[in-house]
UniProtKB/TrEMBL annotation:
<feature type="domain" description="CpXC">
    <location>
        <begin position="8"/>
        <end position="130"/>
    </location>
</feature>
<dbReference type="Pfam" id="PF14353">
    <property type="entry name" value="CpXC"/>
</dbReference>
<protein>
    <recommendedName>
        <fullName>CpXC domain-containing protein</fullName>
    </recommendedName>
</protein>
<dbReference type="InterPro" id="IPR025682">
    <property type="entry name" value="CpXC_dom"/>
</dbReference>
Length: 222
């Protein structure tokens, strides 16, 4: 585990203080850090002045070198870029080439990617799955459907292989959505033309990425 220092400003009393942060973890060598990341404990801080407890947002690298071939996720809060390079001392440790390197803007997206790769799934296919699922739900009842899905786990339910998603609307958790794994397999086949699109650097692979790829495919056909 690598530690550093950063300055945070309390959102309640505006007190400025220096805190110890952890800009990167490798859960292969430090497996106990996985739960600290997923629970948010690693980002917690307490204001020295008013006692407020909250989360400090800072650039963070999550690295797993073994699970399903290894993967890396770079959290950069509110990042507007779609691709970034990894700089500094960590750069020499994270040359993945064909292994997934992903850019995410928030904690929910970080956990989404961790769970996807740990389940042995392709996050590009999962994002297409989300796009198609939300589009179908729009036809059913556009006022009550979620506007965002985050993968949580793959599980056997009543003898059927299922994918579970946390459903959000306006960042509020609505509940859990259970979808058959067979629909994921259908997405693997239906999205075949876009899987050949190269992914370089740490890339944001999300619903926007899918929609852009589908748009490019449509233009090629025309």
């Amino acid at each position: 585990m690598i530690t550093d220092e950063d300055v945070v400003v309390c959102p309640v009393c505006e007190h400025e203080q220096t805190i110890t942060i952890c800009p990167s973890v490798n859960v292969t060598t430090d497996p106990e850090m996985r739960e600290k990341v997923l629970s948010g404990e690693i980002f917690e801080f307490t204001c020295d002045k008013c006692g407020f407890s909250g989360y400090a947002g800072y650039p963070f690298v999550y690295e797993d070198k073994e699970t399903n071939g290894g993967f890396l996720i770079y959290l950069e809060p509110d990042c507007e870029d779609r691709e970034v390079g990894i700089e500094g001392d960590i750069a020499d440790q994270v040359i993945y080439h064909e292994r997934p390197m992903r850019l995410v803007p928030d904690m929910n997206s970080l956990k989404d990617k961790i769970f996807i790769f740990e389940a042995g799934l392709d996050d590009r296919v999962v994002e297409l799955f989300k796009v198609l699922t939300l589009a179908k739900m729009q036809d059913d009842d556009p006022e009550k459907i979620p506007d965002e899905l985050k993968f949580t786990k793959r599980a056997e339910i009543n003898g059927e292989d299922m994918l579970l998603f946390a459903a959000f609307r306006n960042e509020e958790l609505l509940g859990t959505l259970e979808m058959p794994y067979s629909l994921y397999q259908t997405c693997v086949l239906s999205g075949e033309p876009i899987w050949d699109v190269p992914v370089t650097e740490c890339a944001a692979i999300d619903q926007q990425w899918v929609m852009e790829r589908l748009g490019e495919e449509k233009e090629t056909e025309e």
